Amino acid sequence: MQIFPQLYLEGQDTLDIFGEKVEVKGKLGDMIQYTLNHGLTASNNDFQGGSVMAKWKGFYFRYLILADAIANQGINLDEFWSYKLGWEGEVLNGKGILNTSVFRDRLILTAGKFNSAYHYGIATDLRIKGWKFFFESSLRDLGGYFVPVNNNTWDTRLGLLVGVSKKWEWGKDEMFSLRFDVRNYGKNFNTNYIDNGRVTFRERNSSFFGNYVGERFYPLKNAYRPFQEWAVYTQFQNVNLFSSNLQLSTNKRVWKEFYLNGSLETMFLNSEVAKNFFYNFYTIGLSYNGFKGFKLEGYITNKVMNLDVGFQTFYQSNLPIISYRCIRWFGEGGDEQGRRILN
Predict the structure, then answer these.
(1) Lowest-pLDDT range, 258-267, 282-291, 302-311?
(2) How confident is the model at residue 113 (pLDDT cuts 50, 70, 90)?
(3) What gap in Å lies between CA 47 and CA 62, rounded to an integer?
(4) What helix, strand, coil percent values describe the chain, rounded to 5?
(5) How far apart are CA 9 and CA 326, in angstroms?
(6) CA 305 to CA 309: how far, in whole Å?
(7) pLDDT at residue 11, rounded to an integer
(8) Contacts by 277-286 with C-beta closer than 8 Å and gap 24+?
């Protein structure tokens, strides 16, 4: 059994400033499986950090800090400092909600101490009848820790992401969700973000493989997360990289408190060094959801923990693996956090 206590504080208030109502929200503590913007960079990782946001008549400003990125992401970053200015409101005669923003991210690298790289970008999403269409673009600057290479033009430092997602829900704990995105990283976007230490999670040269070596560990709860994360893309240095990612998941009640659960994640990668490369991860199982915050499940999957690289990722097994798990979560917000762990 593993216990993962989560320390997290969140609060909000409305202030009257010169007769205007200003909403203020603050968060501080453990951010579980957090994704920054739409996931062009930080995605599906745990961070210690905090944020403060002020909103006035649809306009908002958000300041965010994510700490210990090297331990949680396994890449050559210590902290994210993100500044965002945006607007959210109804469009299309009230049929849709648009959220658009500009941001400036400061990424503090671990190598070379206080060297920084800066990203300047746009993030937008449009929600219509349960569908969410999203876009993110980020341009990396020339300063800080960046090492120039040949043909260092603006397009080689640009990252782009566009996608769509939707979730259908019916009955108790019954749902089907999908998320699809395509992205492209210019060959200089991820330069030096790779963790060159390549710390692994086991000692491969010993007669018996240990579960833990080095300064980091791989929590078992993280084995249930999506394969897609920024660290996967940073492994391709100084090459243009294109990818597409499809994620599907479902829970369907079959009898009383018994549910059929399934998930599928497919990723396509193409670059000068990895052309037409596919990852396909599946999980299918039967669970007993006896009460809120509890799940007992038996399942088969081809997704297994990869302990041979410096970030928490997966191997694709040629044969299905029979597994089981029993998870119990508690506390305010525990149901939401538990679902993130499970799904």
Answers:
(1) 302-311
(2) low
(3) 17
(4) 10, 55, 35
(5) 27
(6) 10
(7) 93
(8) 279/227, 279/316, 280/316, 281/227, 281/314, 281/316, 284/260, 285/260, 285/261, 286/254, 286/258, 286/259, 286/260, 286/261
Asked if 299 contacts 282 with a C-beta cutoff of 8 angstroms, the reply is no
Q: Is the dihedral of CA 183, 187, 193, 195 positive or negative?
A: positive
User: Residue written as tokens 């800066």?
Assistant: 118
User: At which residue do the structure tokens 């008549």 appear?
Assistant: 57
294-306 and 313-328 strand pairing: antiparallel
* 3-state secondary structure (DSSP) of residue 130: coil
Exposed / middle / buried, residue 192 (Cβ in 10 Å: 0-12, 13-18, 19+): buried
- Report if pTM > 0.85: yes
Copy the structure tokens of residue 131: 């569908």
The confidence score (pLDDT) of residue 32 equals: 83
